[in-house]
Amino acid sequence: MTTAVCPGSFDPFTLGHLDVVRRTRALFDVVVVGVAKNPGKAGLLPLETRVDLVRAALAADPATADVRAEVVPGLVVDFCRDLGAAAIVKGLRGGADLDAETPMALMNRHLSGVETVYVTGDPALSHIASSLVKDIARHGGAIEDLVPDGVAAAVRAALEQREER
Question: What DSSP state is assigned to residue 121?
């Protein structure tokens, strides 16, 4: 059985992310969504909340109900090695994503031999990015049509908590 890892910070998990996981599941026997803390990004949602939201979204979709989500405790390549993963799968919305992902893919292959596979996202979802979802929510805009069920409420709750501080 071939295993693939779909890694990301998923802050928050979007319909674009879910689309990539669906496509990945059609290609690999086992898929694990690796939820990672990205020290280069200012996070909104706590790591465990992100994992819970990803798990709920995966469970609610028949195409991804057997996909699991786990915390990536360190380097993605070490996570892949521990799982016996044959590939890292990343979604691409356009050329800028390829430019950002290529150095990471090359480094991951250098460190571990694990290959990165790119899946082109659904063009109807290519405008969705976690950073934009957070910006829209910060300004009171509707994000329910950009994220799986439950994610919008979690984003709003996290934003309210930040305002109270």
Answer: P
Residue 24: how many other CB atoms lie within 10 Å: 23
**What's the 3-state SS for 13-74?**
CCHHHHHHHHHHHHHCCEEEEEEECCCCCCCCCCHHHHHHHHHHHHHHCCCCCCCEEEEECC
CA–CA separation, 38 and 42 (whole Å):
8
Only one residue has tokens 């290959």, namely 115
Which of 9, 25, 130, 134 is the catalytic position? Answer: 130
DSSP, res 153? H
Confidence of residue 98 (pLDDT cuts 50, 70, 90): very high
Helices and strands (H, E) in the chain, number of each type: 6, 5
Residue from 9, 17, 25, 134 carrying the catalytic annotation: 17
Known active-site residue 130 = yes
pLDDT in tens, 53-93: 999 999 999 999 999 999 999 999 999 999 999 999 999 99
CA–CA dist 8, 97 (Å, integer): 13
Q: Is 41 a catalytic residue?
A: yes
**d(Cα 88, Cα 4) in Å, to the nearest integer?**
6
50 is known as an active-site residue: no
How many residues are given for the chain?
165
